[in-house]
Amino acid sequence: MTYDVARIFLANDIAESIFPDNSFIYKSIDDAAFIKGKKVDLGQAGTIPTVVKNRTTYPLPVAKRVDTIITYDIDEYSTDAAQISWTEALVAPYGKSQSIIRDHNGVLETASAEGVLFKWAPTSAGNIVRTTGSLRPASAPAATGTRKAMTRQDIINMKLKMDKDNIPQKGRVLMVGADMFADLLADTNLLNMYLMGQALQATAELNKLFNFEIYERSQACRYTTGLAPRDYGVAGAATDHSGALAWHPNFVRKAFNGVKVFLNPDQAAYQGDILSALTLVGASKRYTNGLGVYAIVEEA
């Protein structure tokens, strides 16, 4: 095959893979400076002092604050090795090596962002709101049957939980999966906001709904029928439920240690280059009781 024929066969350019917008992970406390190997160690203050109005009893009770150390793991994400044959590098007119590297970086970013969402997902029933809308097909991967759609009132109910927990109003974030986002657009008022472009931005943010910055991706989080978060890398079940995740940046943490690309050029056994990539990412809720992180989970 001549070079010109190869150009026609492969086309003049290549459309890069499209990855979800993962900027939401920066809505958190950055612990990169506290990474020690594959762990992050953080101090957490103990109980706060008690206040008494118009005290009449003396001597004062004495309490010693007991601080604790919170440790969370750093997860390793790596790609399978990819071959770039010498022939491909010769005939491909679009810089295939650079294109493959961008693909590896992209999938690592996506996988690690999904891991962050899983680590942030609340496990306490007190921090979970169930959906109350009309029945529609289940949206979680592998789930069957029907689930109740998410409504505007469900977001209000979650907002009330956050208000009662004294979570700051400014900066709240809500991550919604595609199906639950479509549920919201069934609300005429929200649909009009979407169509008029008053709230939906090019970065896939429906900005400021009840003081939440709303982000959309294909899937936010998923839960088992027992309301336990299910990791993205684990096979789903027919009884799973999709969930939307809400938090305030002051109550979630993440640690990112960069991306490493491994490249072995001119490998005789492959007659080309071999490359792979790896990254280290960890995440955790700030408080062991899950304060500041909430979920709206489909009701069966």
Please write out the topology:
Layout: H1 3-10, E1 29-30, E2 35-36, E3 39-44, E4 68-78, E5 82-85, H2 86-91, H3 96-120, E6 128-130, E7 135-137, E8 146-148, H4 152-164, E9 172-177, H5 178-185, H6 188-196, E10 205-209, E11 212-217, E12 221-223, E13 241-247, E14 252-267, E15 272-285, E16 293-297
Parallel strand pairs: 1-14, 6-16, 9-11
Antiparallel strand pairs: 2-3, 3-4, 4-15, 5-15, 7-8, 9-13, 10-11, 12-13, 13-16, 14-15
List keywords for this structure.
300 residues, alpha+beta, 7-stranded mixed beta sheet, globular
Terminal-residue CA separation: 58 Å
Helix segment count? 6
Oligomer: single chain
- What is the helix fraction of residues, given as a range? 10-25%
Unreliable spans: 1-15, 202-206
Which percent band covers the strand fraction?
25-35%
Overall pLDDT metric: 84
Going by helix content, strand content and strand pairing, the class is alpha+beta
Largest sheet: 7 strands, mixed
Shape: globular
H/E element string? HEEEEEHHEEEHEHHEEEEEEE
- Radius of gyration, in Å, reads 24 Å
Query: How many β strands by DSSP?
Result: 16
